[in-house]
Amino acid sequence: MQDNKREKALKILADIEDIEPSDTVYAKIGDKLSQVYNLLKEAGDTERLTKCQWDRLAFDLHAQWGVLYKPNTRFVPLIETSKGKYPDPGQITDEAFNYYFERAQESKNPVLKARYFDILFEYWENASEDKRLKIADGVVDSHLELAKLCETVEGAELLLTDCYHRAVAGCLSFNLKPKLTKIIPTIEGIIDLLQKQNKERYVLDLVEILFLIKGSKLGNLISNSLLDKFKKILYIIQTSFKDKKNLHLRRETLKIIVNLDRLRKNDTGIQNARLEFARSFEEEAEFHTETKPPSFLLRAHFLELAMREYMNIGEEKKFKELKAEIRKAYKKAKESGEFKKIEATIGVPKKKINEICNYFVNQSSLYDSLKLLANHPTLVPNVAKAEKEVEKEIKGSIRHLVSTTPIADDLKVADIKGEKDKFRWSLNRHILFYINIQTTLILKEVIDRLRAKKGLDTESLMEYFATWGLMDPENLSVIEVGFESYFNEDYVSALHILVPQFESFLRRLLARGGADITRFYAGGFEEKTFGSYLSQPEVKDILGDDLTTYISVVMTEKTGCNLRNIVAHGLLSKASCTRELADTVFHLFLILTRFTLTDSKSKKED
User: pTM to 2 decimals?
Assistant: First the structure.
């Protein structure tokens, strides 16, 4: 039985020796080696098993395109997690290296030979000088041999371009000028051939290889006339991509043209190519409105990319024009139903909620109830706990892999890029959800009961603030008007008065506590923005992280409620002026009464 498994393993190894080149050949070899490894393991063939493990490592590693001749950057693991890497390049021991060297010498298959020399090229730090010289020649010759074979095989174009890339990398690394001199016209001929075969995609990689040569110490081997020839070819290719609606590859081609013109120091050519690059985003935006059904969200996305490109090249008129078009696109996306509401039903523990509400209401006086609402941590989000919950939530879902774009009032309000931005957005949404739940289930009920049982109204609330003693009289008179509207259920008026008054009062309170709330600007002083002074370390020291976050998520965070800025710019719609939002602002005012002033510094009461 063991001999049978060994024979099967040897048969697969023989098949690998005869394998034909293709764009997926190394993945196929990796799969076959996995089969061999399992068979040898079952057969107990430990000697061959070790060698097979080394081969699996060599052929399972992912080879990155674009790595020229920087050591240890060509090959990376397919998978990398907190538990480890697979495959791990660190497992290429001296013994494994020597095995690869022997295989590179003895193998007759150009596919295998090229891979072994490629590995040796990247991990030769401890190799002898004699071995290095052989590797230098081997990495170039083996890839040129494989490239020649790829020219005759349909479906090996990516492998073909990679082979020339590695051959050039070897020449540049070892200063092999005679070999590089022969490679350049060969690549030129293949470019002509691929263009005639309408395989423009692969021309781009080959042209980039020649650019790498031009930017090296051997750059004089690439003449300016050759660069001009390639520029003409590239313009033909980008037009072809445009006609085929392959706008992504059109942009990739234009990027190469820009780099080419930079080499030639052709400022006019650079500007023209960048204009075409920006226009390609407009073309893609238009394309997505012609699909069935059309996507106005995608239109907005590509118009924004176009707008940024126009801005970068100084096309101010186009920049302003596209800003308006982007807003229209978001509005159409909303009208056409591209925005979908996600709803979920959750159970509410009514008995527990009732107990919590009674705890706040059944105090000895209205003053004590309001004081308890101001100081109790239940209604303020716990940031440290929220961060842990968000980390757990992200790890347990694929949401962190999905692109996120916050949109409000027909405008994109933030760029969510990278893990840090995604985490902050998730945290703000998590905290906002917590605030909404607490306000809807607890705060609203407590306020209603206090009004019914203890006479909570504008007058009693003003008395509470007066008893506290830190409410600025200039704010108090205006705040009274706002809360009069609040208790009369005129939430439009209440929010438009109370939100700016909250900012004003908090600013004055913090100034009295020693915080810096102004900045020197253009020869004079002006107030810092709400968001900027909230982010100051001394303000966080005064308010604490939880309360600072509560205020910022409600008032200033673009990925939160952003209430202050929406009100300030007149963007808060009547429909958005809800009782729940007004209750949250009511609570924020109450929370400030937990502070006292001691030695000219604001201090939270115990």
Answer: 0.68
